Amino acid sequence: MVDAHQTFVIVGAGLAGAKAAETLRSEGFTGRVILIGDERDHPYERPPLSKGYLTGAAARDSVFVQQPGWYAEHDVELHLGQPVVHLDRVAHTVALGDGTVLQYDKLLLATGSEPRRLDIPGTDLAGVHHLRRLAHADRLRHVLTSLGRENGHLVIAGAGWIGLEVAAAARGYGAEVTVVEPEPTPLHAVLGPELGAVFTDLHAEHGVRFRFGARLTEITGQDGMVLAAVTDDGEEHPAHDVLAAIGAAPRIALAETAGLALAGREEGGGIAVDASLRTSDPDIFAAGDVAGAQHPLLGVRLRVEHWANALNGGPAAARAMLGRPVSYDRIPYFFTDQYDLGMEFSGHAAPGSYDQVVARGDVGKRQFIAFWLREGRVLAGMNVNVWDVTDTIQQLIRSGRQVDPEALSDPSVPLPSFLD
User: Fold this and answer.
1) Where is the Reductase C-terminal domain (predicted)?
2) Per-residue pLDDT tens for 368-390?
């Protein structure tokens, strides 16, 4: 039973944490709500950091989840710039870096993830960057502007979503860009070689140079500044700046030290939670990037790092904290914008889980929908420069029904007809 004397603490003031606090209030919770973040900025959304804000198309203020005054107006206590350094499950307390100890009745861990670091010489040079936080984007936006003005070179380690979006932004500023990727195509594990090649061609047309099948082994510099990036094939690539975009790791240290159950590596890691986003401790929940959630529809444990999971997972966890019945079965969804290509991806198709990829439309013109199938059932769908189809794709995934792959590839067959 939830009452007005209870205290709900949210650790992590990103999108998931901020939306959880918002939901607690909108659902009528009148107890104490405390939102703790280790950054000094108010809660913000992360997609603009590699998209609109980085490219200069969006203002800095547009990234924030709420206006700064919203939190006081809704009696949400903010502790910004304060890491949580200890979680005591027995005492139901969290300790902050400044020594403050806060009691909780229910706790939400929305600690997110952090960029993986390059383990090579030279990463301490001033021109080596990561992109995860607003402060990173502030700095990188300034760097890209300077590189474009001076015809400078940016080397990006990793051809995942962040690496490609930053490459597109950098070319928009006029910077020279080289992307180093150990796989044979961008996004190889997600899209496979055929559809990964779509992004190779897109970026090559805009002047990006790729070095596939290679890894960075050293970043060289002088007087603390980057001069070049060296790959394991012995090639030296001129560079004024280097971006490490080799993935992210869930921030589980607090949960691990407290003895909460963790998801396995093969499940994507993170804090293990059930379909209601509850951890192995009945008074602690987890949401967003850090949560390895048992998906009730897909039947697997997933850790999803994308915006929509934070947007929807935070509110779901808040409702579960309030004792409401929750079964978090959202279809994983993410999107990207690169140059003139807009894409939405729905579903989950891990390598080896599908037996067929079907394209509907013109792949060469980058206006198509791709479907990942297993035994005729749609596991995932990606629409590229084709709009207003996401709901239908997600309904196809949810239905679990078999479809005719040949008909699915035919644009003259209406997509909703596969749901009839």
Assistant:
1) 333-417
2) 999 999 999 999 999 999 999 99
- Claim to verify: residue 108 and residue 42 sit in the same structural domain: yes
- pLDDT score at 256: 97
CB-count burial class (<10 Å; 0-12, 13-18, 19+) for 244 = buried
What is the chain's percent helix, strand, coil content, to nearest 5?
Answer: 30, 30, 40
In terms of DSSP bridges, do strands 106-109 and 153-157 run parallel, antiparallel, or are they unpaired?
unpaired
> Which residue(s) pair with 248 in the sheet?
115
Which of the listed residues 246, 273, 305 is the one where a domain comes to its end? Answer: 246
Residue 15 covered by a domain? yes
The band of 1, judged by pLDDT with boundaries at 50, 70 and 90, is low
Do 150 and 135 share a domain, yes or no? yes
261-273 burial string, b = 16+ CB within 10 Å, else e? ebbeeebbbbbbb
Helix H or strand E encompassing 212: strand 209-212
| Shared domain check, 148 and 297 | no
83 shares its domain with 15: yes
Query: Do residues 269 and 292 lie in contact, with contact meaning Cβ atoms separated by under 8 Å?
Result: yes
For residue 414, what pLDDT is reported? 96
Q: Is 47 helix (H, G, I), strand (E, B) or coil?
A: helix
Smallest Cα–Cα separation from 158: which of 50, 57, 2? 50
Q: Is the Cβ–Cβ distance between 161 and 243 less than 8 Å?
A: no
Mean pLDDT of 21-34: 98
Cα torsion angle, 408, 410, 411, 413, sign: negative
Q: How many CA atoms lie within 13 A of 412 on its CB side?
A: 1
